[in-house]
Amino acid sequence: MTNIADTFNIVLEVSFNTNKTARYTNDINGFKQLLNPILDKKRVGVAMESTRGYERPLVGFIQDKGVAVSVVNAKRIRDYACYSSFFRSSLGYDC
Question: What residue ranges define each of the domains in the chain, with the CATH number in brackets?
């Protein structure tokens, strides 16, 4: 199971493979809320865009909980979204 988090300075946009998306605040309270659905999975990995350092607190928080995290170039995430009909429709990407 892979979760993709789009980090921004105020809000985390999160897409779960279950065709579910959610928003969390980019602070410790939002991190704790995000952790619940992540830890409910048997196998989980998190991928997120690198966004001028806004992702760093979340990366550290998730790694401290023992979850694998990949920080990926934003263009790679967008390219993936463009080729995935789920992401195009759910996140409104216009390729």
Answer: 2-91 (3.30.420)
